[in-house]
């Protein structure tokens, strides 16, 4: 016998992916350290695009429904998963949440993972794209300190660029490190607070949904 | 600490295989873990006794074969050993690489009674 330890997770991820494809749902797995602004980025994106695109959100946190409440305040359907002591979402948790969401076709599903740059990297949730978010208040060397997450991501959003004048942060250096780990990464530089740089990210989201069709 | 999830996954596989074989306990379990698999062996050791308590693996000897990361450069075809995802090709310094091995995380064999 030979068996992959993550096989159960991968089978359920494949099941999720098939479901998303059948309904033309573009699913994103948002990962980052705590405090990089994942939820703020999500709020801004939903507020700006919810009139033109259908969104659903799954929130993963160890405790509280605070993030789900922030999303629900925008009238976007949301499911909160509390992982308790768990440090990451797994595909069967997403499967259960998706069943309850009852999504309409041609939508975007944002899965906000638990804030943690290590553990979520190993667990495929069935997403089409993985998006790692890093903020300018973190060190430029995060990509090489936590290479697994940057290696498995497709997109890297650099948040809080409005704070750069006050910080000793070298944007090019961060990108160079990230590209060393993963030469295929696509970058967006944004401020979820001021809205700066959000338009290219929105254009990318629209294009992905069209490409899916 | 995702190693606990991983250990529980291993227990699940062992329980299933033992059940199929009609066995009540596992004597030896062989694992293959790549250096790029995202598993900290020390963390796995730490959570192992908790994860296997009162399961078929409780008394099992765990043998871990570590598989060294290897890549092939996509620019110059050089094959090289890698410790980290960001290790460039030693020949041409390119970061474009195909990972040949090192991401394994498998149960290779079980000995049951």
TrEMBL record, chain B:
Pfam families: HypA (PF01155)
Leader peptide range in chain numbering: none
Metal-binding among keywords: yes
Annotated family: Belongs to the HypA/HybF family.
HAMAP family xrefs: HypA_HybF
Record-linked NCBIfam families: hypA (TIGR00100)
Protein name as it appears in the record: Hydrogenase maturation factor HypA
